[in-house]
């Protein structure tokens, strides 16, 4: 197959700043992504429901075990299991933003009742936000809620970006228990909370627009749910003491930290704000495909195929491995497609950190 882009020329452009604006689309790759996956793309409830339910069930059981057992070693082991299982259950929020509204009846409601509200992260915090990250003209620009040029920022920005996630459980309780009810009686507070603290975004300049239609109704009952649950958590300390809640907070802080590390390596973060072609967006995103099994732990529910997801955002997570296999085999060595494949988390962190030491310091 002939490729629009030459691999050597692509590598040369990637090695220099501002390469995204210069990179044309690889039309052969885009055609292959369309033609080779026509029989894929149907979200299968027989996969989604058991995966989500088992992950959540294991997570909650492990949290209960970590609270109840006395041995520190067993407590830590159960805490790790709980963090990983609840992390996988939480990541279905990403699928909810992309599956068609008529697919998987009841799954959004079930996920919110079992995962989103109990973990104070209801689906509205991602729905209507994440899709902006996939808009052709907004990805990587100041209008993208999920993009920061991390590879071009100062070296200290990377550890700060990761470690701030440890405060996520506390921030979510403050939001749900205090800011939400305040916003119900004080419109300026409500507007501020909605614009700044009601989306899972990393761009500090992002301001969320008011909800409309069906989203407005979902926001109401989900906000009510997290408000009631947050005060139930606070109230539990008067019955059981602070230890159980603090244990759960530590476990969920680890979950948030792991997700932040995954976010750090989901892209190369090398765009300087210009609009990008689909191919440039793809190459600024990351696949960590098999054979390594570890990526399935830190990038679950299809997120190890994040670059491929940017080519086909509506592809359900269970079809991404097969779509990747077909494209990788068809396009072959030296193709643009393989340019988004990376070996693992640590090489990616090292690449981004190295970039901050050179480009980031040069921009300071």
From TrEMBL:
Membrane among the record's keywords? yes
Domain Fatty acid desaturase intervals: 80-334
Q: Which residues cross the membrane?
A: 58-87, 107-126, 160-186, 224-252
A UniProt-annotated Pfam family:
FA_desaturase
Set out the biological process GO terms recorded for this chain's protein. lipid metabolic process
InterPro entries per UniProt: FA_desaturase_dom
- What keywords sit in the KW lines? Membrane, Transmembrane, Transmembrane helix
What superkingdom heads the lineage?
A: Bacteria
Q: Does the keyword Transmembrane apply?
A: yes
Query: What protein is this chain from?
Result: Fatty acid desaturase
Q: Which organism is it from?
A: Parerythrobacter jejuensis
